[in-house]
Amino acid sequence: MATSSKSEDRRIQRTRQLLRQASIDVMQKKGFRARAFQEIAERANVSRGTFYAHFVDKYALLESLVREEFQN
User: Fold this and answer.
1) Which residue, of 3, 36, 52, 71, has the greatest Cβ tally within 10 A?
2) Cα 40 from chain centroid (whole Å)
3) Would you give the end-to-end CA distance of the chain in angstroms?
4) pTM (2 d.p.)
5) Contact predicate 44/21, CB 8 Å
6) Which positions ≥6 away from 10 have C-beta within 8 Å?
7) What is the pLDDT of residues 57-66, one digit of tens each?
8) Per-residue pLDDT reduced to its tens digit, 26-59
């Protein structure tokens, strides 16, 4: 596996952060049970495939949000 450059790592971090923030917005509006992957992707300005490239499902995304809150 090739090593990632620092700029690539920042892009990945930025995309994940955009997805996290978009998911918070959508979950506040529609709740966690809503299947709004497309809306999350649109709000983050990424494709639905990009969503799934970063998070397996909404539970993985929720875990990421919780982990980030605990780290802060």
Assistant:
1) 36
2) 8
3) 31
4) 0.78
5) yes
6) none
7) 888 998 999 9
8) 988 888 777 778 888 999 999 989 999 999 988 8
Q: Give the model's pLDDT for residue 16.
A: 92
Q: Counting beta carbons within 10 angstroms of the beta carbon of residue 39, is it exposed (0 to 12), middle (13 to 18) or buried (19 or more)? A: middle
The answer to whether the CB of 64 falls within 8 A of the CB of 20 is: yes
List Cα–Cα distances, 61 to 7, 13, 52, in angstroms.
Answer: 23, 14, 10
CA atoms 39, 44, 47, 48: torsion sign: negative
> What would the two tokens of residue 66 be?
């919780």
Residue 64 three-state SS: helix
**What single-letter DSSP state applies at residue 5?**
P
Distances (CA, A) of 33 to 3, 28, 58, 72: 37, 11, 9, 26
pLDDT for residue 18? 94
